[in-house]
Amino acid sequence: MSFLFSEIDKNPFYFCAIFRELIVLMVLFQAGVSDIASGRIPNNLLLTGLIFSIPFLKPEDILVNALGGIIVFCFFIFIWRLGFMGGGDVKLISYLTLIKGIEDTLWIILISFIAVIILNSRRLILKERLCKRFRNLLDYIKKYEKGGENYVDIADRKSEGIPLAAYIYFSDLIMLLCLRFQI
After folding, report:
1. pTM listed for this prediction
2. Taking Cα atoms as reference points, which of 162, 112, 106 lies closest to residue 133?
3. Is the sign of the CA dihedral 152, 41, 58, 62 positive or negative?
4. Which end of the chain, N or C, is surrounded by fewer C-beta atoms within 10 Å?
5. What is the pLDDT of residue 44?
6. What pLDDT, on a 0 to 100 scale, did the predictor assign at position 83?
7. How does DSSP assign 9-64, residue by residue?
8. What average pLDDT does the segment 29-41 reach?
9. CA-based angle 12:16:17, to the nearest 5?
């Protein structure tokens, strides 16, 4: 307990960081449950989490995190367009970047993707979903070079989704408990 109070004396934002992390964990948990149950992540959940998390950010981090959030959103919207992740996952990753910053978010995403690959590789390979997605992507690239059509793989998205929000939740826990707690 004395460690907690000594950290508060050194850094006044320590309590803010603890509350911010608790809010993020609650949002990620609820997003994971919702993603598993219905395959959707509610917009109002992310908006509520954003509203309650922003007051606990350092003032100098708000602009940097907002710029990082825009960059991450633009990158992952491209990944969503190719059909490799859902729109709710893109919004959730953007929310994480706005609150935690780009570096922590990229680590969380890396851990999440590694977990998805390890835990779902058998399912993806046996059902040939991964191969089908890459074949669709190659067909799209060929058509785009010839004059272009829009890439549409919507029919497969509904039935083949992996609840990435749950993996993001556990990756954030790993980051928080095992790797580091950054204030």
Report:
1. 0.76
2. 162
3. positive
4. N
5. 94
6. 72
7. HH-TTHHHHHHHHHHHHHHHHHHHHHHHHHS---HHHHHHHHHHHGGGS-HHHHHH
8. 92
9. 105
Question: Could you count the other beta carbons within 10 Å of the beta carbon of residue 120?
Answer: 14
Residue recorded with tokens 């953007």:
94
Q: In the numeric block, which tokens belong to residue 119?
A: 């835990």
Residue 34: the pLDDT is: 93
Please, are residues 62 and 98 in contact by the beta-carbon 8 Å criterion? no
Query: Six-digit token pair at 14?
Result: 């320590």
On whether the CB atoms of residues 120 and 147 are closer than 8 A, the answer is no
pLDDT digits (tens, 9 = 90+) for 41-60: 999 999 999 999 888 888 88
Give the number of other Cβ atoms within 10 Å of residue 3's Cβ: 7
Measuring CA to CA, which residue among 179, 175, 182, 177 is closest to residue 14? 182
The one-letter code for the residue type at 36 is: I
**Cβ atoms 35, 167 nearer than 8 A:** no
Give whole-number Cα distances, 18 to 10, 63, 129, in Å. Answer: 15, 21, 40
What integer best gives the mean pLDDT of the chain?
Answer: 80
Buried residues in 141-151 as b, exposed as e (16+ CB within 10 A): eeeeeeeeeeb
